[in-house]
Specification:
GO molecular function, one term: Wnt-protein binding
LDL-receptor class B repeats: 1-43, 44-87
Strand order of the largest sheet: 4-5-6-7
Protein name: LRP1B protein
CATH architecture of the largest domain: 6 Propeller
Structural class: mainly beta
Radius of gyration: 19 Å
Number of strands: 13
Shape: elongated
Helix content: under 10%
Number of domains: 2
Largest sheet: 4 strands, antiparallel
GO biological process, one term: canonical Wnt signaling pathway
Pfam family, one: FXa_inhibition
CATH superfamily of the largest domain: TolB, C-terminal domain
Length: 179
């Protein structure tokens, strides 16, 4: 799945399949300007920063179990968001500090470091990387991902895929080759 925020006409947090299909709103009320998003892949939670409302909130992948982690004026300066173990990590754009926030109750806020020009943050740790099983976009015997001549996107599950073409090409009637 692909998770993303949108604060156009209607602010929301959404998810869809990797090929863009099955687009679903998971949060569309009491939300104004969601700017940063992080996933808890283990427990299947979505965290986001709403800089207009000054809050960090969380829901499960279906949009249920919503609650506020932290709320206050200091949230309006946060950009980027990552989750690891018991904490959320973010950047305070006002003073360029890396912050660590307890993700269960919003307490224990610590400034860990200062960076010159950070706008995003990511945590890379082996335990957060899910094991990859065989999937529909694996290279075929000719080296083409999922048998697609240009781009292979996973669809509704790891066994289904959709082929797409680079700009200037159209998908052939076979659903795999680009012309």
């Amino acid at each position: 799945k692909l998770f993303f925020t949108d604060y156009g006409n209607t602010a929301k947090v959404e998810r869809c399949d990797m090929d863009g299909m099955n687009r679903t709103w998971i949060v569309d009320s009491k939300i104004e300007q969601p700017t940063a998003l992080a996933l808890d892949l283990i427990n299947k939670y979505v965290y986001w920063v709403d800089i207009y409302l000054g809050s960090v909130e969380v829901v499960d992948y279906q949009g249920r179990k919503r609650h506020t982690v932290i709320k206050g004026k200091q949230i309006r300066h946060l950009c980027g968001l990552a989750v690891f173990e018991n904490y959320l990590y973010t950047i305070n754009s006002d003073n360029l500090s890396v912050l660590r926030i307890n993700r269960y109750n919003g307490t224990d806020i610590q400034s860990l470091a200062r960076l010159d020009n950070a706008k995003e943050i990511r945590v890379y740790q082996k335990r957060t990387q899910t094991a990859v099983r065989s999937h529909a976009c694996e290279a075929d015997p000719y080296g083409m991902p999922g048998g697609c001549s240009h781009i292979c996107l996973l669809s509704s599950n790891y066994k289904a895929r959709t082929c797409r073409c680079r700009t200037g090409f159209i998908l052939g009637s076979d659903g795999r080759s680009c012309k």
